[in-house]
Every structure is written in C-alpha cells, then in structure tokens.
Design goal:
- By secondary structure, this protein is mainly beta.
- The longest helix is centred in the N-terminal third of the chain and has 10 residues.
- The protein is globular.
C-alpha cells in the first residue's frame, strides 16, 4: 500500500497487486482504531481529516493487514463559504460569495463547502488553495450562457508586445466561454472531497446547436498552464463539453474521481490532457458520452507554434464505461505523445478500448513513442484495439480527398507517423465488431505492432458496426485481427473465439511473425 495523495483533510492510498481496478478481496479500513469504511477497489480514500494530525491507517484485506502511518498537512486556515454569504439552496446564485471566499483567504487556505447545492457562474482559481466539497455539496453551473464571460485565445501584452495564451479547444487556440472552474497560470491547488461539480449541461443549451455558438463551449474544469493540481474524490458531471481539460499544464493528478454524463451527450470527454507533462489518472471511474480519456498534443499549427508534446502520463486502476473510446491517443497529436503507461484497467461497454486516431495533416512531429498497454480487461467493448490513421472528425477538411484517398500521397511536413505499439496481457469478452482494427497510411505505414498474451471472445448476438471513424467505412461483425499498412507485426499467444471469417487479415506488411497463436 502506498500513499498517492496527502492533504490537510484527505488522503488517498493505492493497493499494490496485479488485479485491475478491483482489489483481490473486500477490505475494511481502520483509522486510529475506528472503522472509517469498506470497499473492493484498489484505491482507497479517507476524507474529513484534521489538519496537522498524526493518523494510523490499518487496511484489513481478508486475513491480511497492512498499516500506514501519516501526518496530514498543515494549513493557514479553513473558511466556510456560508460565512461569506453563500446560501446553497440551488436557487440563489452564490457566485460572488464563493469567489470572495477564494480571493479573501491567505496562501495555504482551505475553502470549505458544507452540504448544499451552490448555483454559480464560472469561478477563478488562485495559487496555494484547497477547495473541499463535503459529501452532499454540489457546485452547480448556471445555465445562463449569455452571462458567461468569453476568454480570448490570447491577449497581447501592450508593453512587451508578446502574446499571452489563455484558451483553447480541440487542438487549437480559440476563444471559449469561461469554464465553471477556471485556472490560468496557477499552481499548488487541490479540489477534494466526496461532493460534486456539476456542469449542468443537460439543462442549458450547451448540448444543442453548439456549433453555431460565437465561442467554444466551456469545460467543467479548465487548467491553462497550471502546475501541481490535484482532484481527489470528487464527482464531475454533465459537462457542457469536455469535463476536465488540462492545457499545457504540469503535474496534474486525478485520483479516485468519478466523471459522468449521459451516453448521448455530445463531446463530453471525461479528461483530455493536452500538451501536458506529468499526468496521473489513478483509481477513477468514467462513464461519458465521448472518449473517457483522450491524450492530446494539438493540431498542426498550434504544435508548430509551441512544440510541446504530451509526456509522462500514468493511467492505472481505472474503470471506463459507455464512451466512444476508453483510452484514446489523439486525434490532436501533432506535437507527439511519449511515455504513456496504461495498466490494470477495466473497460466496459465502450465502443472502442485502446484507441489511437490520427490523419493526414497532423504532421511529421506527431510521433508516439514509449507507450505501454498492459494488464487490461474488457467486457462488451465493441472493438478492443483500434489504430486509425484516417480519422474524419473535428476538422473543416475532414471529408476531403486529402484525408480519405487510399493512394500513397507525397510525404511532407504534414504527414503523420506512428511508431511501435505493444498490447499485452488483455482479456476481452463480449466483443462484437472486431478484435483488432489497425489501418495505417500507405505513404506512412505504422512501424511495428506487437500483440502478446491476448484473448478475445465474441458475443453470440454480436451486431455489426464500424470499428473506426473514417470515410467509406464498412460495417464489420465478429472480425478477427485486421492490419493494413503496418511494416512489422508480431503476434504471440493470441486466441480468438467466435470469429466469423478469417482470424487474421494482413495487407501491405513487410514482415509478420506468429507464435503460440492459432490464427488459421
């Protein structure tokens, strides 16, 4: 057992085992001799602790016990938002009271929300701050779009003449409505507790005709060039668009959180870290209307401007449900993605499991390196593995011949490149569309794909579907391994059950090896 996060009023532990998301057995946690909870997940959180206090936690799992002593951090003060005039009845608007509480307290303070529903317009974070949402406390976003400030993509410094970047969305710098929780150039912030941050997207017009809005939709939490920010335990729900969007930020942690939105809500990704360094997503559960996690690094123009790749991302012990993709890299990856570890996760009823998406136009710097997918269980995921270099969404030219042409086009500065990918130790049940769908570009084949220790079984009542979002896509059903335009393919100990047709289809490959796999 190790400590993932220790604050002034909460602590987060992770159990060390090989079981994805769930612990091997039910556990009970004792704190200073008193029972403080029980459960069955690998990540354990304790809240409502006293600052600057010694504690001894004992985790009982079956017949085993493990002890962990810790001292909560000190803080400068703790203030209750109700003392600043917040009502918390869900009707009275509490924006001014909450923002005053945030602004008035000294560095190292904790702003505390007791149970209640706090209706608010967007709020701005500051440095060295903890926001605590107690159980039963909800920050509820206002539905009055006309009152949301618009944050410009950047402003010009009149003295020095330089640009100050402030906002972006879908891989571009662009103006956007201020997000419900907005942090720009901030550091050392924690948002903790068993409460909720609700974007209230379903009750406004955020999900209706949004492409005609004068600015991009807000996120629930937007962090522009922030450092050392942790969300611990909170529920984030019903985002107007993406829920959590760290943008050019460092050392961002999402621990034991639940992010949720209806399955049919548009573009409500759970968390999309974009051009960030040091992102930890551990012990979280996601159930949203789009990708659960999408690691990004801008579109071509923005990548050429800042040259900031996505780096050092750890995703572990998470459960992802009802999204387009459980874990996605791209499609905005023009500055590259490297050093990503995805381990000990459960995927349930997502359209795709491990999803990599790019397209012509992302550029030669959109290189993905040192990415690990290991020890993953999938149930009722339509297509467990997808690598698609023909992605046809989110760009004005997405339906153009440049994107969809199957001819080998000239390689230039806008040609993307994908390197080596290893998928290992995966068990997939209830698959429907395809076990694996990998489709590279003829002028830029994927370097290498390794599939190792993978079992896939198809649902008996499987229905046809499209494995990848691309022009002229054909519906497939119970298809095996499909790989096109991959230079090297290595398959070890892969078993497929219930395939309709060939177990292995390979085109435009320079070399392929199979070992311990019955693919005939």
């Amino acid at each position: 057992m190790k400590i993932l996060y220790l604050g002034s009023s909460s602590v987060c532990f992770e159990l060390d085992n090989s079981s994805p998301y769930y612990a091997p057995a039910h556990w009970q946690v004792m704190l200073n001799g008193k029972c403080r909870g029980e459960g069955d997940t690998n990540v354990i959180s304790l809240f409502d602790l006293t600052p600057d206090t010694e504690y001894k936690a004992v985790i009982k799992i079956g017949e085993q016990e493990e002890e962990q002593s810790f001292r909560t951090k000190s803080e400068s003060c703790c203030v209750n938002v109700r003392d600043f005039g917040a009502v918390g009845d869900g009707v009275h608007e509490d924006t001014a009271a909450i923002q005053t509480a945030i602004n008035a307290t000294p560095a190292g303070a904790r702003v505390y929300f007791p149970a209640g529903t706090y209706l608010t317009m967007p709020l701005s974070l500051r440095d060295d701050l903890t926001i605590e949402l107690r159980e039963g406390a909800t920050l509820l976003g206002s539905t009055q779009r006309e009152r949301y400030s618009v944050i410009p993509a950047f402003v010009n410094d009149p003295a020095g003449g330089r640009e100050l970047p402030l906002s972006g969305f879908e891989g571009n710098e662009m103006s956007a409505y201020q997000s419900l929780i907005y942090g720009s150039y901030r550091k050392n912030i924690a948002i903790v507790g068993k409460g909720k941050i609700d974007g209230n997207g379903q009750n406004g017009d955020w999900w209706k005709d949004f492409r005609s809005f004068p600015a991009a939709r807000p996120r629930v939490v937007f962090l522009n060039r922030c450092e050392n920010v942790t969300l611990h335990g909170v529920t984030v729900a019903n985002g107007p668009s993406w829920h959590i969007h760290p943008f050019f930020s460092k050392n961002i942690s999402l621990l034991d959180c639940f992010v949720t939105a209806p399955k049919n809500s548009p573009n409500t990704d759970a968390i999309d870290p974009e051009s960030c360094d040091g992102v930890n997503i551990i012990g979280c559960r996601f159930s949203v209307g789009d990708d659960c996690i999408a690691v990004k690094s801008n579109k071509f123009e923005l990548a050429q401007k800042y040259h900031t790749c996505a780096d050092h991302h750890t995703i572990r012990n998470c459960k992802m449900e009802f999204g387009h993709g459980a874990l996605t890299l791209g499609s905005e990856l023009s500055a590259g993605i490297r050093n990503v570890s995805v381990t000990r996760c459960l995927f349930h009823s997502t359209d795709r499991g491990l999803r990599i998406k790019t397209r012509r136009g992302r550029g030669k710097d959109s290189v993905i390196t040192n990415v690990e997918f290991d020890n993953i269980r999938m149930d009722s995921v339509l297509t467990p593995i997808v690598i698609n270099m023909w992605y046809n969404c989110c760009d004005p030219d997405r339906h153009s011949e440049y994107v969809w042409s199957r001819d080998a086009l000239e390689v230039d500065e806008r040609t993307p490149h994908l390197g080596r990918f290893v998928f290992r130790n995966m068990e997939c049940t209830g698959t429907q569309v395809a076990a694996c769908y990998i489709d590279g570009l003829p002028e830029s084949p994927i370097d290498c794909v390794e599939l190792e220790n993978i079992s896939v079984s198809f649902a008996e009542d499987a229905k046809p579907g499209v494995p990848a979002m691309q022009e002229f896509a054909k519906e497939r059903c119970r298809e095996g391994l499909y790989l096109d335009n991959v230079r090297e393919i290595h398959i070890r100990n892969v078993s497929l059950t219930g395939v309709a047709g060939p177990k292995l289809t390979v085109d435009h490959c320079e070399s392929i090896t199979t070992e311990g796999s019955d693919l005939t």
